[in-house]
Design a protein that fits this description.
Rossmann fold; alpha/beta; about 45% helix; 2 domains
């Protein structure tokens, strides 16, 4: 039997778990203001995050897709980085089920050693897979799946839905004029700053800025911002592929959806950071668009697959407020959540891991 350890960040089950959850993230006991702020954010989205329930949905959907093709060959367990069931709990359940080979698959498409690398280290530590220890259970970690077959199409579909919704809003506000008709000199200025790769562009400041913030070519009044969780900029300077992979995902979606104005921004950096993180922050990116005369912005959170605090609060509340202050219509692409096609994407990743290596269970992966 092949085990799939489906990993996610985790979320507290209730307010009583907030202190231990935040302590796990911070690696130190959080202050009372930090706890109060986090609880306030959960209250603002109507209670606790749906991440735990949605991760179980992803697990159930993946089981269904795998069983349809290979009945009884796979076991799938959930492991959370900062909550229960833990990564170690999920691993133990797969071993108890008799899995001789395990694939680690994080519900985050882009690799960073600070994220996916940490998931992998947790599993290897639990399995004691090191050079001095022999193990009959083999393990392989999916490093990234930011261009996985089907993923780009899923996001492209959601972007088109958001654009249609925003066009309707603009038409109501402008007496029936379309977004294209509402293109402004400010948008032309933005387009000039967003020349395609290969054309001269002004220097961009700030570590972690996208290599190519988008393409230009018409007077569309709707701008799409692709977002992912921010990370310390020094990781990119040290060769971490995370920022580059996020930009690759964004570029692939923009091409598939025929976007003409788009960019990449970062979100959810912790408060009171002491070093540069990836820029621009999504709130700053929205404010900059407002200064150009942009009419509407659609946010596509490609760094996440499920709704949770960072979409429901950081985007739907905080980023929306930035758009409102700038007089820009705002919409956020629906998360992948319950879509069975995401399970098909995840299953295809599993199949590629199987087909790209020797028969699972016959060798040890390093």
């Amino acid at each position: 039997m092949i085990g799939i350890l489906l990993m996610a960040h985790g979320t507290p089950a209730d307010s009583q778990e907030i202190p231990s959850f935040l302590e796990s993230i911070r690696s130190h006991k959080p202050s009372q203001p930090e706890l109060d702020d986090l609880e306030k954010r959960y209250q603002a989205i109507g209670g606790m995050s749906p991440l735990a329930q949605l991760t179980e949905v992803h697990r159930d959907n993946l089981v269904q897709v795998l069983d349809d093709k290979y009945p009884g060959r796979f076991a799938v367990a959930v492991g959370m980085k900062h909550a229960k069931p833990s990564i170690e709990d999920g691993l133990a359940s797969l071993e108890q089920a008799g899995a001789a080979s395990i694939i680690g698959l994080a519900l985050a498409p882009h690799y960073s050693r600070a994220s996916i690398g940490d998931y992998e280290n947790r599993v290897r530590a639990a399995m004691r897979l090191d050079l001095s220890t022999d193990s009959r259970t083999t393990f392989r970690m999916v490093k990234s799946w930011h261009l996985a077959p089907g993923l780009i199409e899923l996001w492209s579909e959601r972007i088109k839905d958001a654009i249609v919704s925003l066009q309707s809003v603009i038409e109501k506000e402008t007496g029936g004029k379309s977004a294209r008709q509402e293109g402004s000199a400010g948008q032309e200025q933005l387009a000039e700053q967003e020349k395609p790769a290969g054309q001269e562009r002004p220097e961009k400041s700030g570590a972690g800025m996208p290599d190519d913030p988008g393409s230009a070519g018409n007077d569309s009044a709707i701008h799409v911002i692709f977002t992912a969780h921010s990370l310390p900029a020094r990781l990119t300077d040290q060769g971490d592929p995370y920022a580059g992979q996020v930009n690759e995902t964004a570029a692939a979606i923009a091409k598939h959806a025929s976007l003409e104005h788009w960019s990449v921004a970062w979100q959810s950096a912790p408060m009171h950071i002491r070093e540069p993180w990836l820029e621009p922050d999504v709130k700053d990116a929205i404010s900059a668009l407002a200064d150009t005369g942009c009419k509407a912005v659609a946010i596509c959170p490609v760094g996440f697959v499920s709704d949770h605090l960072e979409t429901l609060y950081d985007l739907d509340i905080v980023a929306r407020e930035s758009a409102n202050l700038g007089g820009i219509a705002f919409d956020r692409c629906k998360s992948l959540d319950h879509d069975m096609r995401l399970a098909e994407v995840l299953a295809s990743i599993v199949y590629m891991e199987m087909n790209g290596s020797e028969e699972m269970g016959m060798r040890r992966w390093e």
